[in-house]
Amino acid sequence: MPYHLTRRMFLQAGGALTTACGLDLQAATPPRELKISHTTQTRSVCPYCAVGCSVVIHTLGDKARNVTPTVVHVEGDPDSPINRGTLCSKGISLKEFIVNDQRLTRPLYRAAGATEWKPISWDQAFERMARLIKETRDRGFEADDAEGRRVNRLANVGLIGGCTDTNEINFLLSKFRFGLGILSYENQARL
Ligand code: SF4
């Protein structure tokens, strides 16, 4: 009759062998503390594509004013019905996107004909964008069409949204668009 080794018998034999040899496995391999043991968890959305996977961002730092928080880990959100905790190879590299000394943190401007980008302030960037939009709108706005019908439209400006735009950004873009009368609007919207 073939000998049948059960899981319980296997574990009992292993325990007896360990004791006989004088080994204390717990002392030999103390549990390692997880890098996310003391982190703050923030839920967000992967910015890379229109799938819109949810992520959990782990930040280290005790929220004291003299401590700069550091992102130590990003993982898929298991509570998300979209990705159920999974991330693709791009999404799983999000930490390197967040903690990256090559990341742009201020606007750069390259004048027409220039070869170099120069840093400018946010106020300068907003002022320039607002002025150019205003000048373009003043040139292209049509209050009435050729038959005298009220149209309030702007055909010389187009608006393009990206896959990283959330519902809230799209809501604001729509407000912006209708406020100016922009007709052309394209968006790889998510969610
Ligand atoms: S994890 Fe991958 S599939 Fe999901 S949103 Fe990011 S890039 Fe898209």
Provide the fold topology:
Layout: H1 7-20, H2 25-28, E1 40-45, E2 54-60, E3 70-76, H3 94-98, E4 108-109, E5 118-119, H4 122-140, E6 141-144, E7 150-161, H5 167-180, E8 182-187
Parallel strand pairs: 7-8
Antiparallel strand pairs: 1-2, 2-3, 4-5, 6-7
Strand content: 15-25%
Give the fraction of residues assigned to helices: 25-40%
Placed side by side, the strands forming the largest sheet appear as: 1-2-3
Order of helices and strands: HHEEEHEEHEEHE
Shape: elongated
Unreliable segments of 5+ consecutive residues: none
Distance between the termini: 62 Å
Number of separate strands: 8
* Ligands and ions found: iron/sulfur cluster
Describe the structure.
- The chain is an alpha+beta fold.
- It folds into two domains: about 40-100, Phosphorylase Kinase, domain 1; about 110-185, no CATH class.
- The protein is built from five helices and eight strands; from the N terminus they run H-H-E-E-E-H-E-E-H-E-E-H-E.
- The strands form three sheets. Strands 1-2-3 form a three-stranded antiparallel sheet. Strands 6-7-8 form a three-stranded mixed sheet.
- The termini are far apart.
- It binds iron/sulfur cluster (SF4).
Provide the descriptors you would attach to this structure in a database record:
three-stranded antiparallel beta sheet, binds iron/sulfur cluster, elongated, single chain, Phosphorylase Kinase, domain 1, three-stranded mixed beta sheet, alpha+beta
